[in-house]
Specification:
It is built from 3 helices and 9 strands; from the N terminus they run E-E-E-H-H-E-E-E-E-H-E-E. By secondary structure, it is α+β, with helices and mostly antiparallel strands. It has one domain: 2-Layer Sandwich (Heat Shock Protein 90). The strands form 3 sheets. A 5-stranded antiparallel beta sheet has the order 3-4-5-9-8, covered by helices on one side. The chain has a two-stranded antiparallel sheet with strand order 1-2. The chain is globular. The relative contact order is 0.19.
Length: 150
């Protein structure tokens, strides 16, 4: 895709209020974009689960620390990789430097607490690549990717 001499990468952004019901919408959108990128059915299940886990984590943190702020999900297809970033804006927690995998307790959609880091451990088993980085406006960005080349 070209735009005035520059190559643009197809991107979808989704912002939603931190409500558990909206996690389902994020999963559906991510699955639809992944399908359009050419990912196979088995990988679509992994996308659905990983995005659901990352969004559930962000919703839990937002409901606890900043319920007025939306969760941001960015989906990108760059011809060889499908990338998803889930950004929260929850305040930085007092965690050991560099141990981003245990940033906070997470919750499943039924509100039952699970141990810290479990959600990110589940995600890491579903993606080709994962990184957890500090966000621009505080919080954390969980970046996930899947190869779209056969």
């Amino acid at each position: 895709m070209r735009e005035s001499g520059k190559v643009t990468v197809p991107t979808v952004e989704l912002r939603f209020t931190a409500l558990p019901a909206h996690v389902r919408t994020a999963r559906l959108v991510a699955t639809a974009v992944a399908r359009r990128c050419g990912l196979g059915e088995a990988v679509l299940d992994e996308v659905r689960l990983a995005v659901g886990e990352a969004c559930s984590r962000a919703v839990h943190l937002h409901r606890r620390y900043c319920p007025e702020r939306p969760v941001l999900v960015t989906l990108v297809d760059d011809d060889s990789t499908f990338r998803v970033a889930v950004a929260d804006e929850a305040p930085a927690l007092d965690e050991p430097e560099g141990d981003l995998g245990d940033l906070a307790a997470v919750a499943d959609l039924d509100g039952e607490a699970v141990p810290p880091g479990v959600s990110l451990a589940v995600i890491s088993g579903l993606v080709d690549d994962i990184s957890v980085e500090p966000g621009r406006d505080g919080g954390v960005v969980v970046r996930m990717s899947w190869s779209t080349s056969g």
